[in-house]
């Protein structure tokens, strides 16, 4: 599996990325920066001393991922600032992405997904860290603009995977916050109590998903409560 993690603001990158990686590894706590750099199953390619990531950098990185995970069910290969990848390096990486199994997950952080080859983008799920963006490309519709039947269809798709379930919850939370901010700017504060109640419903649903409760039932119950 490959994820393209798009971040627009540098300060958001590490915190949101750590939360995303925590969901993948199914950890109960947010991964610390220390664990992110020292965990035996998290391999980082981060080049700070030059402007590009070349094919030799990729080959050395690939050697770290030829073994099975040591501690977790999956190992993570994270390429930071993937916009630095040369064309040749991306083509070299593509073969690894195509051949990777469930025991290896690649995460490419990038400032703009269009800076990666279309062949790489087509093999990845695109995740956005910026709140103005929809969290994942497969979840583009505003959840609150859908009727309950359509919401349940989206829930059924997302509930098949724990990470997708959390990403859907994050999307819904961000949409709710954006809607509330617009109401505040327009001088409408009557919905403050409902907004806080909805946030509690969302947070409780997130906790249930992280506790391995039935994802579909949890998300459907959340959708019904948010409709009330």
From TrEMBL:
InterPro entries: P-loop_NTPase
Lineage: superkingdom: Bacteria
Name of one Pfam family that matches: DNA_pol3_delta2
Gene3D superfamilies registered for this protein in UniProt: P-loop containing nucleotide triphosphate hydrolases
Listed name of the protein: DNA polymerase III subunit delta
Native species: Candidatus Dojkabacteria bacterium
